[in-house]
Amino acid sequence: MRIYLESLGCRLNYAEMAGLGRQLAGAGHAMVESAAEADLCVLNSCAVTGEAARQTRQLARQMARANPAARLIITGCYATLEGETVAALPNVDLVVGNARKDDLLATIQGLGTRDQETDSSAPVPSPLSSTISRTRAFIKVQDGCRNRCTFCIVTVARGDERSRAIAEIVAEVNALHAEGYQEAVLTGVHLGGYGNDIDRDLRALVAGLLAETRIPRIRLSSLEPFDLAPDFFDLWPQSNDRLMPHLHLPAQAGSDAVLKRMARRNRTAEFEALVDAARARIPGLTITTDIIAGFPGETEADFEQTLAFARRIGFAHIHAFPFSARAGTAAAHFAGQVAQVECKRRVQALHALDAELGRAVRAAFVGSTRPVLWESVLAPREIAKLAPHAAPADAAESIGSGLTDNYLRVLARLPAGVDLHNRITPTLLTQLAGDDLWGSVLVG
Ligand code: SF4
Predict the structure, then answer these.
(1) In angstroms, what is the span from residue 146 Cα to ligand 1's centroid?
(2) Cα 330 to Cα 285: distance, rounded to the nearest angstrom
(3) Where do the domains of the chain lie?
(4) What CATH number belongs to 2-129?
(5) One digit per residue, pLDDT tens: the chain, 444 residues?
(6) Taking the model in full, what pTM does it have?
(7) CA 239 to chain centre
(8) CA within 20 to 30 Å of 295's CA: 42, 136, 316, 439, which one?
(9) How far, in Å, from the CA of 193 to the mean position of ligand 1?
(10) Is residue 362 within 8 Å of 437, Cβ to Cβ?
């Protein structure tokens, strides 16, 4: 079958579809780039906010319109929480909740196409053509969460914590490295809870990957700022620079009063102490975060505390979200709901702070040399957005785009014929032009 996989939401959703894509290709199916080419489409849905749920419905309708003849399976958090609503969407053949998501390969194998006779003369595109330019692979290592943050619907949709065995993850990373991937990004609903159900922990997993794989880069995706072993950051100095010096630690708020109502398991002092401990052990570390603006009961003074907290930490990037009351969460029923217009004003204030802090972090690394994994060259429409003096000197020249080890996006001029795709090169960070960080590649 020709199969199209689509995902919304978190890195874990992407990791799940990438993993399913590899399984399906291994079973002889062809992965295609669009719903229009497919016999079967799978949408991994998201429900983290009301907006994400709306986008899921919109995308499902678009996929149905693009190819009414194709089968459509919807899985993921929105399908888990609102199964009947999803089943009523046009062209939906099957709704598969998170609890049965791991059986999708068998489910699809048992389905077949709507009209069975496939046009054998149709071109069969190369398998796995949609794998994030095959440079960085997202790896699902655990699912579920035992915490009960009062705003969070994910813990409801994903259920209890369950971890994959270290040996299985090591084998997958080695297989992906053999396929050419240069970076493994570990993902989960609650990465810090990895191993709680199998008498292991995240430290053991990372140590196992460092010892039993040769992939050049290992990165941690979102990591709740609690549950980390005190000696967790000792792994970095022992990793031969294979463990990436970047942590995404969702703070959610910088006011202890708000954190208490969110039922977060840390307060600002613990978060700052964790960051200090990490910075002491990990040279060149950058920290990014998520912050919810307008949580019920959040006063202007609380919000000012959050802005001051973010400024003290010096985040490299802040993902700012307006509070979204999700049915099934405690916070949806809390008193003191903040007006959406005020939530949006606070999000704007966080965006402005993010721009300022982000520039300061990037500027601080100008003059330093970092390893960059080159992922792509800019398309003409992307080049058009660059500052005028940044445009290529001649048509043959291209602009490469890559990620440093500490998660900074870097651009570089590449002379004609130079293709650095999926290569890691030492790169001198030369200047910050507007918001763009430029570098000079230090190898031929
Ligand atoms: S720790 Fe994260 S996934 Fe778990 S309930 Fe809290 S916000 Fe949700």
Answers:
(1) 8
(2) 35
(3) 2-129, 132-364, 369-441
(4) 3.40.50.12160
(5) 999 999 999 989 999 999 999 899 999 999 999 999 999 999 999 998 889 999 999 999 999 999 999 999 999 999 999 999 999 999 999 999 999 998 999 999 988 666 554 444 443 333 333 444 579 999 999 999 999 999 999 988 999 999 999 999 999 999 999 999 999 999 999 999 999 999 999 999 999 999 999 999 999 999 999 888 778 999 999 898 999 999 999 999 999 999 999 999 999 999 999 999 999 999 999 999 999 999 999 999 999 999 999 999 999 999 999 998 998 999 999 999 999 999 999 999 999 999 999 999 999 999 999 999 999 988 877 877 776 556 666 777 889 999 999 999 999 998 888 889 999 999 999 999 888 999 999 975
(6) 0.90
(7) 23
(8) 316
(9) 10
(10) yes
Calculate the alpha carbon distances from 82 to 71, 328, 361 in Å: 20, 11, 41
Q: Give the residue from 413, 392, 384 showing the smallest Cα distance to 401.
A: 413
CA 331 / ligand 1 centre spacing (Å): 13
Which residues, in sequence order, are CB contacts of 168 under 8 Å at separation 6+? none
Pick the CATH number of 132-364 from 1.10.10.10, 3.40.50.1820, 3.80.30.20, 3.40.50.970: 3.80.30.20
Residue the block writes with tokens 């609650």: 190
Q: Which atom of ligand 1 is nearest to the CA of 190?
A: 3
Strand, helix or coil for residue 118: coil
**For atom 2 of ligand 1, which residue has the closest CA?**
190
Of all protein residues, the one whose alpha carbon is nearest to atom 1 of ligand 1 is 147
Q: Which residues line ligand 1 (CB under 6 A)?
A: 145, 147-149, 152, 154-155, 189-190, 224
End-to-end CA distance of the chain: 43
What is the residue type of 68?
P
Helices 202-212, 166-178: axis angle to 10 degrees equals 40
Q: Which residue has the tokens 């920290």?
A: 287
Residue 148 alpha carbon, nearest atom of ligand 1: 5
